[in-house]
Amino acid sequence: MNEPIHSIKDPAFRVDVLSREDIERIHADTLDVIESVGVKFPLPEALDILAANGASVDRDTCIARIPAAVVENALKSAPPTYTLADRPESDYRRPPGNPAGRHYQEGCWNRMVRLL
Fold this sequence. Notes:
- The chain is an alpha+beta fold.
- The protein has one domain.
- Helix content is 35%, strand content 12%.
- It has 4 helices and 5 strands; from the N terminus they run H-E-H-E-E-H-E-E-H.
- The chain has helices at residues 20-36, 44-52, 68-77, 109-113, and strands at residues 39-40, 56-58, 63-65, 82-84, 92-94.
- The protein is extended and about 65 Å long.
- Residues 99-116 have low confidence and may be disordered.
C-alpha cells in the first residue's frame, strides 16, 4: 500500500526548479542591472578596486556600475569552493557546483571584490 517516506541522505541531491534557459536569462538580466543601475559598495577599498578594473564609480553614493565583461571575468577566476567564515563552529563551506560569488551577505563583499 503506502510506503513510508525515507529521508534523503544523498548530499548531492538537487531539484532543478529553473530550466537552463531561465538561469541564463536571469544571469543576463542581472548583468544588465549591475552595469546600468549599479551596486552599492560601502567600502572605499572595494570602490578603488572596482574603478581600477573598469567600473564606473560614484563615490558620493558608493554605487559602482560594473561592465558585464568585468563581472564575467571575475566569476571565471573565482575558486570552485570557499569558506564563508564566521566563528570556527559555524563556518560554511560553499560546495563545488554552486554559482560562484552569489553570496551577498554583508562581510563577504570584500572577499568577492578581491577576485577582480
